[in-house]
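Practice problem: predict the structure.
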Amino acid sequence: MVKQRARWRHHLFHTYFLFRRPMTLGARGVVIDEATRSVMLIRHTYVPGWQFPGGGVETGHTLEQTLAKELMEEGNIELTGRPELFAIYHNAHASRRDHVALYICRSFRQVAPFVPNREIAEAKFFNLDSLPEGITPSTRRRLSEILDGGEVPLTW
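Answer:
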């Protein structure tokens, strides 16, 4: 009876906090090909700018599962080793409750050429010395933090 009450109380508090403090969480990957000094960027069909691939974490999925799924869907990228968690940011641009986990992906392979779809217009590797016009300011800042050792802020 005591265990049952404890489980019920635990469930009640989790339900309360779900409504009181809801939060969204996403995972993005900086897919870097060190041999060619290039990075993969995507361009969505519904928002402007080149950015890192990624997406929101669904219930029951881990950050790394989400990242692997999004990389495959958005660029036919298969991880061949575990990605490295770089930082977790508050993404107030999306909403006051959004957070993004940014991973560096160095072990991967592209299993097939990318074919545009309803969500992703383009997915390409760009040389780090000649990034495309239209790269989002946040993407440019993240690359600077990673490549130049820039200070890592708390916000996206």
